[in-house]
Design a protein that fits this description.
Blueprint lengths: L25 E6 L7 H12 L3 E4 L6 H10 L4 E5 L5 H14 L6 E5 L6 H10 L3 E3 L1 H20 L11 H6 L3 H13 L1 H7 L1 H5 L6 E6 L6 H15 L5 E7 L8 E2 L14 E7 L11 H10 L4 E5 L16 E6 L14 H4 L2 E4 L7 H16 L11 E3 L8 H15 L26 H36 L4 H13 L2 H8 L1 H8 L3 E6 L2 E6 L1 E3 L5 E3 L9 H10 L25 E3 L4 H12 L5 E6 L2 H4 L8 H4 L12 H7 L10 E6 L4 H21 L35 H14 L2 E3 L3 H7 L7 H17 L5 E2 L1 E4 L1 H5 L4 H21 L4 H4 L3 E7 L8 H16 L4 H4 L3 E5 L12 H14 L4 E3 L12 H17 L13 H23 L2 H7 L2 H19 L29 H17 L4 H14 L3 H8 L5 H10 L9
């Protein structure tokens, strides 16, 4: 590790300012725009802090403008960015140019992006002026700390930089560069600042209002500040505001995590300036230089200045010496009520916010704080509602308590010495996402499973005893009355359902010995053969029954394993696999809608079922429109398809009848799922309008490419309009209703795993959950029976680094959280459970062999015994995608071997559908050749591999049964750990899931690095050249022409509906603020609004995701 040459000296006990020292390096770290791969940059920023740097971490999905604003306002010496989602050439060049153009060309730029940044691109960017980009081979050669040491050495430069000669004029204009450098001079060269600069500042000090905000760590101060800024900007768009935020320095290393900016969504733009400061001393909540920084902001003429102190204790009152109004932010977690007497700020605070008011004990805390305030103020006359104590939930969308607090502050600004203009209304306690009496739902699920296990053990013992008594009676050939009595007592003690399971066994044996099998699915009778005949003439049964004769063994098997299609569905949720339809998915996503549509037709050609699995580019994934701005332009159509309008969605799925039972569509979209789902459903409706009216397009006229083979033009006739404009209202409503009942597919709308695995969050957890509930309510009201409203995903949890048990436990727990939330909204379990599906990653670990078996069993028991759900609701359907983590950039040809093994595991476990990754996905968008090979893997397994002739191949294996029980118990143990933390949402607030995932990711990387975990072609069995990172033969990128067409489509759509869009956007905002069904509003709005317009409209009313560490 490098020398801690820049460690600041702590203040002495006398309080004197120490001699000026070499200041710590200040570095801004971030994930690039539309990039959710935050784990790597999080690790890097921790190492930078440990090496003595002050780090301003911005988190994932950061535009060049975000990074440049932060770097200039924070007066950083360097920025370090991870860019894994493509568009890196444009992104880094644009970042370089923006810093240079704004006079901050001294700030050095570092980055990395795994194997996605090719060697020739690294060289091009270094030549352009990027200081250093690190490649995977650098990591192998230098190690993590070696890369950090190299970065810090290259970033080191004289600091602070010189001020512009006309700095007083620039300061009057609130120039961010001048503000940032002036505060650095105050912070790093205080003697020079006070001697040479203070006098110039004093001539222009404005009458700014200063709000001081303090409170203990973890009280949610930063989120609360962001909510205040949002309301300030909404109510006073002509005014300006500055934020000075203080975080503690690490006494041992001198480094600091300046972690407040990551929480701020409302600080972008010229109206707001933000600066993070480290205390650079021990046991202090403010920087000794904060007063000087405050003077700089006052001299700049800001209307409001917010001072947020570091949260290091309950009793610090330093901020009161600097602020006009003081706000103390706390939670219910302060201990006994007597602890309130020790909080000095309750003597000085003008207002108190009891934040995170949804937590247990908050109502009691509100009462106790009010009592303490009365004692401190000797005020026994004022009613509770008049006391300035506010129950708030800063993390909640449009929180009433936050509204009341903001009104109080505004009133005090207007009337600083008096009381508020009107009595303070106590905000009603909002309905929590999950009611307090049900927060132990995961522990209750475990309890029900334990109860069932006890039931199985007791009933199995009775069945075995019954079998033994019956055998004894038969062997003795004597009718002993005592033996007969014991037989009857044992039979009577058996549960009637268990007796029935035993009694029907001979009939089951006879049924599965027949040539065909008949069963019903949703009222439709299906008949299938029960055997397959090999080339050798062997009749291989599709379902093999156990040959147990002991009734105890039979009963245990039926209660824990059972036939496919029967509770607890361990072997599968259907009696037999559907004939003529492999579980294969046709995966595509690149360029414009037409290119992906052509890929779909290429892959689906000759296949009886069309399972279209769609990957969207990162611009779409983050709810944005294509744009000429370089950091957006570079990502349009790369690593996924670009979709921003309803017409894009129509082109994307054109030529496929979306209401054909043999067609289903899967959309991996996450954050903006409600908007894109509304586009898809409207596209399906308009297809049926086309078919009803016999409208047909001019072939090729509206499809920006040649129509692929098999494309009949369906879906193109209503481009530029919608079905409700070409047919009468009654006709349209009838078509719409029938389409919604018929359309098949799934959308990946699961917000919980996004926040846990840090991927594509764009809306806040609470707001996104609400929209998921709105989708489900819309589905229930419109009888949407064949479309999954959410695919609860473990894939992204696994890809972020989780091991299989953690993936499975977290994903199932997330599913049960949705169940609880939907129940809290008054939905009935059997109305929504069939619309839930799951999405898992497969891998090389042994636990993946039984992942599906355990998932089905855990879900079925919980739904039956905890929720009283019917048989259909007990059946868990899930999709498998082979592991992305096991796709390596070295020896990429070996990736197909791993993918084949993973596909085989998934298919033997009766996964409902499967996507096999292309071997070259580690380094590029898959080529046509690699995608075809990936699809061939599962087709060969399904159609050629002999073991697949059996449909319950894993049943009867001692190893599989033991592994199933071990993994199931491990899942229950994780449920209990989550329950101890308040369930999934409580654990998320403590960042438990994210910490677990990152710890497991680090463990994997360390074992891979040391060779403890052998990976062929990566750390063992290397080729003579050392198996370097492979440069792909063909690099798939969206063309400049495609990007231009995407922007033109956006512009044309917005121009076409320029008169209708504003009203539609306002309607969506009003529905969001009033608590109506946002998805129902989106179904209409997508007809005239683009994806980016709708996303921004929801951001403006406060629905935006707030990043955290």
């Amino acid at each position: 590790m490098i020398d801690q040459r820049n460690r600041p000296t702590s203040s002495s006990s006398t309080g004197q300012t120490p001699p000026e020292t070499v200041p710590p390096l200040r570095i801004v770290t971030a994930g690039s725009l539309f990039d959710g791969h935050d784990a790597a940059i999080n690790l890097m920023r921790r190492l930078m802090q440990a090496s003595g740097a002050e780090v301003i971490h911005l988190g994932h999905d950061r535009s060049v403008q975000d990074i440049v604003e932060a770097a200039i306002e924070e007066d950083a010496q360097a920025v370090a960015v991870t860019s894994y989602q493509g568009g890196h050439l444009e992104f880094f060049k644009y970042l370089h140019d923006r810093l240079r153009d704004l006079g901050a060309g001294n700030i050095r730029i570092f980055g990395g992006g795994g194997g996605t940044i090719l060697p020739q691109e690294l060289a091009e960017l270094h030549t352009y002026g990027i200081t250093r980009l690190y490649a995977p081979d650098d990591g192998r050669a230098m190690g993590l700390q070696g890369m950090i040491d190299d970065l810090l050495a290259r970033a080191d430069q004289p600091h602070p930089a010189p001020l512009p000669t006309d700095w007083p004029d620039r300061l009057a204009q609130r120039d961010p560069l001048t503000l940032g450098r002036l505060i650095s001079w105050a912070e790093n060269r205080p003697d020079f600042f006070r001697k040479n600069l203070t006098q110039s500042l004093s001539h222009s000090v404005a009458d700014s209002f200063v709000l001081g905000i303090t409170g203990p760590g973890g009280a949610g101060k930063s989120s609360l500040v962001d909510e205040l800024i949002l309301r300030f900007r909404r109510n006073f768009p002509e005014k300006t505001l500055a934020v000075l935020s203080v975080d503690p320095s690490r006494r041992k290393t001198g480094g600091a995590l300046l972690g407040d900016r990551i929480r701020m969504n409302a600080v972008s733009g010229p109206a707001v300036f933000m600066r993070s400061m480290a205390t650079r001393q021990a046991h202090a909540s403010v920087s000794r230089h904060l007063r000087d920084a405050l003077a700089v902001c006052k001299a700049a003429g800001f209307d409001w200045i917010l001072l947020e102190t570091s949260g290091i204790g309950q009793s610090d009152t330093s901020v009161t010496e600097l602020a006009d109004l003081n706000l103390y932010v706390m939670t219910a977690e302060y201990g006994a009520a007597t602890q309130l007497e020790k909080i000095d700020m309750l003597d000085y605070a003008d207002a108190v916010a009891v934040n995170k008011f949804d937590k247990p004990g908050s109502t009691d805390a509100l009462r106790d704080v009010r009592k303490q305030l009365r004692r401190n103020r000797n005020d026994w006359q004022s009613p509770d509602e008049a006391l300035p104590v506010f129950p708030t939930q800063a993390a909640r969308f449009n929180d009433g308590g936050m509204n009341a607090l903001f009104e109080f502050i505004v009133a005090r600004v207007d009337n600083p010495r008096g009381s508020p203009a009107k009595p303070i209304a106590s905000s009603e306690s909002p309905q929590p996402l999950i009611t307090p009496d049900r927060t132990r739902y995961l522990a209750d699920i475990v309890a029900e499973a334990r109860k069932y296990a006890d039931f199985v053990a007791k009933q199995t013992a009775l069945a075995r005893q019954f079998y033994q008594l019956e055998g004894a009676k038969t062997a003795l050939e004597t009718d002993f009355s005592e033996l007969s009595q014991k037989l009857e007592e044992t039979r009577a003690a058996l549960d009637p359902a268990c007796r029935n399971l035993l009694d029907e066994w001979p009939e089951i044996q006879q049924r599965f010995a027949a040539d065909t099998y008949r069963y019903e699915v949703r009222g439709k009778t299906i008949e299938q053969p029960l055997t397959n005949t090999s080339l050798s003439g062997t009749r291989i049964p599709k379902i093999t029954l156990p040959k147990y004769t002991d009734w105890g063994d039979r009963l245990r098997w039926r209660l824990t394993e059972n036939l496919p299609g029967e509770f607890p569905y361990t072997a599968g949720v259907f009696p037999l696999k559907r004939q003529g339809e492999d579980p294969a998915r046709m995966f595509a996503g690149e360029g414009l809608a037409e290119r992906t549509n052509r890929r779909f037709h290429y892959l689906a050609q000759g296949q009886p079922a069309k399972r279209l699995s769609t990957a969207f580019d990162s611009v779409t994934l983050y709810g944005n429109d294509p744009d000429p701005r370089p950091d957006i332009w570079g990502k349009v159509g790369n690593s996924g398809v670009s979709v921003c309008t309803l017409d894009d969605a129509k082109r994307l799925y054109s030529g496929f009848d979306l209401c054909d039972p043999a067609t289903s569509v899967s959309m991996t979209i996450n954050g903006p799922a409600p908007i894109v789902l509304a586009m898809f459903l409207n596209a399906a409706i308009d297809q049926q309008v086309e078919k009803t009216t016999l409208l047909r397009p001019k072939v090729g006229a509206t499809y920006r490419a040649n129509l692929p083979e098999g494309h009949d033009g369906l879906g193109l006739a209503l481009l530029g309009t919608t079905g409700d404009r070409v047919v009468e209202r009654e006709v349209y409503q009838k078509i719409k209703a029938e389409t919604l009942k018929t359309v098949r597919g799934t959308v990946q709308a699961d917000i919980l795993k996004e926040d846990q695995a840090q991927n594509t969050c764009i809306f806040s957890t609470e707001f996104a959950l609400r929209m998921m509930g709105d989708i489900q309510e819309f589905f229930i009201e419109n009888d949407v029976r064949n479309f999954y409203s959410v695919s609860v995903s473990g894939y992204h949890i696994a890809e972020a680094g989780a091991n299989p048990i953690t993936q499975l436990a977290f994903t199932l727990a997330n599913g049960f959280t949705l169940v609880e939330y939907y129940l809290s909204r008054g939905m009935k379990v059997d109305d929504f459970a069939p619309n839930l599906s799951f999405f898992f990653s497969n891998g090389m670990d042994p636990e993946y062999t039984v992942l599906g078996r355990v998932a089905r069993r855990v879900w079925a028991k919980a739904m039956k015994f905890r929720y009283g759900a019917n048989e259909r609701s007990q059946k868990l359907k899930y999709h498998i995608q082979t592991s992305g983590r096991s796709l390596h950039a070295q020896e990429i040809a070996f990736n197909d071997i791993r993918t084949t093994l993973q596909a085989l595991t998934a298919l033997l476990d009766n996964a409902n559908s499967l996507h096999t990754n292309a071997y070259d996905e580690a380094i590029t968008t898959p080529t046509e050749e690699s995608v075809r090979r990936a699809l061939a893997i599962q087709l060969i397994i399904n159609q050629e591999f002999g073991a697949m002739k059996s449909e319950n191949f894993l049943q009867g294996s001692f190893a599989v049964e033991e592994l199933t029980e071990l993994v199931e118990e491990a899942v229950y143990q994780e449920f209990l750990r989550l329950s101890e933390r308040g369930g999934v949402l409580g654990a998320m607030e403590r960042m438990y899931q994210r910490s677990r995932i990152q710890d497991e990711s680090m463990e994997y990387e360390m074992r891979k690095h040391t060779g403890q975990l052998p990976i062929v072609g990566v750390n063992t069995f290397l080729d003579p050249s050392g198996s370097p990172t492979v440069v792909p033969r063909e690099v798939i990128r969206a063309s400049e022409e495609e990007k231009r067409l995407a922007v033109e489509e956006r512009d044309a759509f917005q121009a076409r509906y320029a008169n209708q869009a504003p009203a539609a956007l306002r309607a969506v905002q009003e529905v969001a603020l009033s608590g109506g069904n946002v998805f129902a509003a989106l179904m209409e709005a997508v007809k005239v609004c683009t994806l980016g317009q709708l996303t921004q409209a929801l951001y403006e009313v406060g629905g935006r995701y707030r990043r955290n560490m």
